[in-house]
## 1
Amino acid sequence: MRIGEIAALVGITPRAIRHYHHIGLLPEPRRQANGYRSYSVRDAVLLARIRRLTELGLPLEEVRDVLADDAGRELAEVLGELDADLARQEREIQERRRVLAALLEDPLTPDAPLSPALVELLKSAPTTASPAAAKDREHLSLLDTAVGGDAVYAALRPLAEDPAVLRLYERLDELDGAAADDPRIAALADEMAAAVPDEVLAEIPYIGPVATGFGQALLADYPPAQAEVVRRVMQTLTARMHRRP
């Protein structure tokens, strides 16, 4: 293949190929009698690999390290890895389109694209004017990509639909403006933690200690008494997660 042909095949420019030659990222191929470079299928595979890695955000220095690890591998193995990369990208694109389709059909909010599973969960919850419940929804939306998933939201569904949970939120609202040593804190924290079923915790890989950056930011979002309730709930749930088999 000539340089223009391999560039069109891989989807990059001849100028980029020449740059890769210049910096030593892509070895110079053999030249024909007329002086033109002659590229092989392996060269095309290598270029496709370079393009894939750069699209993932790796700088060229790191791409060189990755390619060095690939040296000596069979062509079929490298092709299989490229095919797996493409399959992964197809799955990611399909998931993004699924999210977009759900948003176009029923946009929950104009500025917070959520997973379809979370949209369905939030729609199943009864309507409430509770500020604490609204804040909990915001936090759940924030964690959607980190700890969310169909299994997590399916486990949360009975909790979201339970009217007794609304009363817990209302009791948390009543602590707005109270001191961090309010006598109502301990009982409410215990009840809120007990309301979270083990099925939910089983689907969350890791909550992390309360002292993490996110935990501190989360607690800072609440007034003192409410923050103490949330801190105790997080502490109890984390302990339960560590005790599970």
## 2
Amino acid sequence: MSDIASHADSDAHLDLLAGLSQRLLERARASGADQAEVSCSEDTGLNVNVRMGEVETVESTRDRGISVTVYFNGRKGSASTADLQDASLAATVDQACAIARHTEHDPAAGLADAELMATDLREFDSWHPWAIEADRAIDLALACEQAGRDFDPRLENSDGASVGSGSSLSVYANSHGFVGRERSTQHSLGCALIAGRGADMQRDGWYSIALAADELESAATIGRKAAERAVSRLAPRQIATGQYPVLYSAEIARSLIGHLLGAVSGGALYRRASFLLDSAGTQLFPDWFAIDELPFLPRGFRSAAFDGEGVATRESPLVAGGVLQRYVLGSYSARRLGLQTTANAGGVHNLQVAANGGDFEAMLAGMGRGLLVTELMGQGVNNITGDYSRGAAGFWIEDGKIQYPVDGITIAGNLKQMFAAIEAVGSDVDPRSHIRTGSILVGRMTVAGEG
């Protein structure tokens, strides 16, 4: 796919980026910076899209980015370039220094503390290049779409199928002497189909994503799943407005965890723009509920030995016994809050939500009667108040069984109350994300439908 496909080639490119980082740090020091950090990345990719049996796009990408940040006694400046020429690199450092000399002093600015830098710089089996040519990728996408379209005669249209493959190399280095190297790959195959005609059309799809191509679901399986999902949504009904249990399917349930992360992240907290201010150490969830951060998972989507500032990552609970154990902080937000970084500069590293409710069928049976949500629309979430209101579609459940599709509804509540009202988490984990959760049952929400 590219000239960095092999382990040996990737090592050579990482060596190049690491050497480049050192030269930039040396120039920053020579320019008077008391601290400096450099991030270098090189990404390659192949993406193809087909629709209705025809090729729509074939795109090959190669991107490079070099970012330099310097600190002059709490004054920060940053500049970036994609040009590896010496003159351009020198100009980038000079520009960062010039910016820093014109910024205000910020006592929270600066590198993470030197003693927190990672020393165990292991890898997590995340480098699996896929030597796929464009013609083969096109054939896979066409086979995926055709398998779906052949599933049911009501599938007369398609939003297409796609294949993607990418690799990423990165180096982060700073003036503490830390140099961290990472490499990863990610591959995907997906399909979206349209069932029915006119005003009765329904769209749905399926996709698979993995760090290694041999872990992708087959093209035929993805096409059939996309077809089943689209056809199952035909002839939706309305439901009466009321208070009902709501079961978030696994791929939708992780959005609830995402809202939690947004509310406990350092930026929202020090800006006082979160409904979970001063919530560390308080009970937010039922006492059986737990979320653990697991940065060392082999082939984890966000596995890493260090965060975006070089701080050593560590396994730790985010929620235990229903109690929020900590916030999600990098060094800047931690200083603003009078706390210490949680090694989350750049985000969290693989979250695992503990299950207590069995598989998907057990979750349906446990709910008995209510709404299964398989799609959310809109952005109706207020991070300051926690008020939650989103358009939704899914299925009505009676006697623990799916009865018929529903759409054109709105589900509403307050996130703090919704967290407390979670009754079960399924073991039906959707593996396509760094937030690993099964379906989540919220005991009661307002559902606005007919009347």
